[in-house]
C-alpha cells in the first residue's frame, strides 16, 4: 500500500502562485503515474495534471501554460507549480498515485486552494 501526505494549499490572490507537494511512502517501488485532481463545490472531480514515471505529462486544457507538474522519483514526491491563478482554480486538490503491480490508485486527503481577492 501507498500512503500520501499533501502540503502547499492556501489562500492566494488572483494572478498569484502556489506550489503543491505530495510525498508517497510505503510500497513506492510499484508507483507508476502520479498526479493531481481537483473538485470545486458543486462540480465533479477533474484531472488537473498527471506525470508518468518516465516524465510524460498530461494537463487539463484549463491549466495548460499556467501549471507545471514534476516529480522527484528519488523522493517519491510529485509537485504542482501553479502560476497565474484564477478564481476558477478554487477547489480541493487531491494527489493521486497509480501503482502496478498490483494495479491500484491511491488518493490523498486533499488540500484546499482558494483564489480570491
Question: Notable features of this structure?
Answer:
0% helix, mainly beta, 56% strand, 4-stranded antiparallel beta sheet, 11 strands, 7-stranded mixed beta sheet, 117 residues
Question: What does this 3D model show about the protein?
Answer:
By secondary structure, the chain is mostly beta strands. Helices cover 0% and strands 56% of the residues. It contains no helices and eleven strands. The chain has strands at 2-7, 10-12, 18-26, 31-39, 46-51, 57-59, 67-72, 77-82, 91-99, 104-107, 111-115. Strands 2, 4, 5, 6, 9, 10 and 11 form a seven-stranded mixed β-sheet that branches. Strand 9 and strand 10 form a beta hairpin. The N and C termini lie far apart (40 Å). The model has no long low-confidence stretch (mean pLDDT 96).
Give a topology summary.
Blueprint: E1 2-7, E2 10-12, E3 18-26, E4 31-39, E5 46-51, E6 57-59, E7 67-72, E8 77-82, E9 91-99, E10 104-107, E11 111-115
Parallel strand pairs: 2-11
Antiparallel strand pairs: 1-3, 3-8, 4-5, 4-9, 5-6, 7-8, 9-10, 9-11
Question: What does this entry show, briefly?
Answer:
By secondary structure, the chain is an all-beta fold. 0% of the residues lie in helices and 56% in strands.
Shape: globular
Helix content: under 10%
Low-confidence blocks of residues: none
Average pLDDT across residues? 96
Q: So how many helices?
A: 0
Count all strands and give the number.
11
Radius of gyration: 14 Å
Amino acid at each position: 500500500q501507498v500512503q500520501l501526505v499533501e502540503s502547499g494549499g492556501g489562500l492566494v490572490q488572483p494572478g498569484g502562485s502556489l506550489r503543491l507537494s505530495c510525498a508517497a511512502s510505503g510500497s513506492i517501488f510499484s508507483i507508476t503515474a502520479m498526479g493531481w485532481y481537483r473538485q470545486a463545490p458543486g462540480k465533479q472531480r477533474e484531472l488537473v495534471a498527471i506525470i508518468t514515471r518516465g516524465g510524460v505529462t498530461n494537463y487539463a486544457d484549463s491549466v495548460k501554460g499556467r501549471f507545471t507538474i514534476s516529480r522527484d522519483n528519488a523522493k517519491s514526491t510529485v509537485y504542482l507549480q501553479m502560476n497565474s491563478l484564477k478564481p476558477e482554480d478554487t477547489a480541493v486538490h487531491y494527489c493521486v498515485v497509480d501503482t502496478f503491480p498490483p494495479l491500484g490508485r491511491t488518493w490523498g486527503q486533499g488540500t484546499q486552494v482558494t483564489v480570491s481577492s
